Amino acid sequence: MSTLKKSLLSLLAVVMFAVIAFQPEAASAAVKKPTASSIVNQGKKYLGVRYVYGGATPKGFDCSGFTSYTFKQQGMALPRTAADQYKKGKSVSKKDLKAGDLVFFKTSSKPVSHVGIYIGSGKFIHSAGKGVAITNINDPYYWKSRYVGAKRVL
């Protein structure tokens, strides 16, 4: 084999190694994306954890602290606030909700002030006054009239 061919083969090997070794997108794509059931099951682990304004750990959660922590435990980052989470993902109509979708509500003067995770069958899991709980999204006494929309981030 000629010296030129050996040099070209060596160069090709180095280039192929570099392409494989230095692909951050490929490396991050190898991390499995969470499933709806893994997100819902993760969220259910925190049922009963108390509500703490600004809380973002199992010692106490506010609404967006709960959703961001739950998704993070499954390998997916979400922004910290309900308003910023509302800017992510694809809008989904209420009739097309699927488990794992984020559901948003207006509970204060802000356009979006509360977030939870839809778990199916008209229910969502969230952290509010009594802590992490499962609630009917169409509760006529509170949540139904405050519903703003949903985003699919999975």
UniProtKB/TrEMBL annotation:
Domain of life: Bacteria
SUPFAM superfamilies given in the database record: Cysteine proteinases
Signal peptide location: 1-21
InterPro entries, sorted: NLP_P60_dom, Papain-like_cys_pep_sf, Peptidase_C40
Gene3D superfamilies assigned to the protein according to its UniProt record, in alphabetical order: endopeptidase domain like (from Nostoc punctiforme)
Residue ranges constituting the NlpC/P60 domain according to the UniProt record: 33-154
Pfam families, A to Z: NLPC_P60 (PF00877)
Keyword tags: Hydrolase, Protease, Signal, Thiol protease
Gene Ontology MF terms in the entry: hydrolase activity
Family: Belongs to the peptidase C40 family.
Protein name: Cell wall-associated NlpC family hydrolase
Organism expressing this protein natively: Lederbergia wuyishanensis
